[in-house]
Structures are given as structure tokens and as C-alpha cells.
Amino acid sequence: MCTNGTGYGTENKIDWNERSRRNGVVFGFVSFAEGKLVALVEVIPSLNSPYPISKDQSTAFITCVYSSPDSRYDYRGELIESVLEECRKLGFSRVEVLSGEVSPFPNGTTSFFVENGFSNLGTVARSVVMLSGIDNIVLLARDL
């Protein structure tokens, strides 16, 4: 699960992530270029999501999409395709993700996911204050 910084909330996320990994709940893909991590995508069943989203056995939920700001190439689209294929193999029929309407946090901008075949299901949180300013959080989905 994406974490940013330290403190109570971040430590709770790290603890949740460690428990989920031990239970085999979390999966994902990582891209390396020239020996350095340049991108990653992390996924869980929506039933295991700590977020207040609908829980469904056939839905996977992307918890983290990261792209290194130091990379010249954006590897996220390729990783999303790998995640979608893995989700199909695991029996999921839908993948959901939360994104910033214009902010890259969480997970990337809404336009990135729309460009990668996701449908915008609407705003789930309005006027969220983040480091990059005020933004809306959007739920997106892609049927497999």
C-alpha cells in the first residue's frame, strides 16, 4: 500500500500491508530500468480493502501505483496491463482504483486511468486537502 512519510497513519498502513502479505492477499508488479525501481502497481481483493469502497468477491482493487520521478519513461501503463491480465487469471471480473481528479496522488490522475481503459464512476470525496492542493478523489473501474 502506498505510504508517504512517517507517523501514526503511515505506520498503520505499513502494519496492514505486512499482515496482508503474510496472508497472501497482496500482489502486484514492479518495473526496473538499469537496476533501479521505476514503477510498481499493487493490488488486493476489494474484500480486503481498508477503504470504504464496495466489497465484492469478483472485484480487485489497486491500492498503489507508483512511478519514479527520476525515470525518463512512464512504465505504469505496461504494469496496469500486466495487473489486468493477472486479475483475469485469478478470476476477478473487475478492477477498481481511487485517483485524484488532477493530483497524481493517490495512484495517478483520473485522466491516466481513463486513457488506460477505466471508466470514471464519479467523485467519492470532494475537496480533499493534499500536499499538492485541494482535489477531488474519483473512483474508476475497468471490467475484464
Automatic annotation (TrEMBL):
InterPro entries: Acyl_CoA_acyltransferase (IPR016181). It comes from the Bacteria. SUPFAM superfamilies: Acyl-CoA N-acyltransferases (Nat). Gene3D superfamilies: 3.40.630.30. This is N-acetyltransferase domain-containing protein.
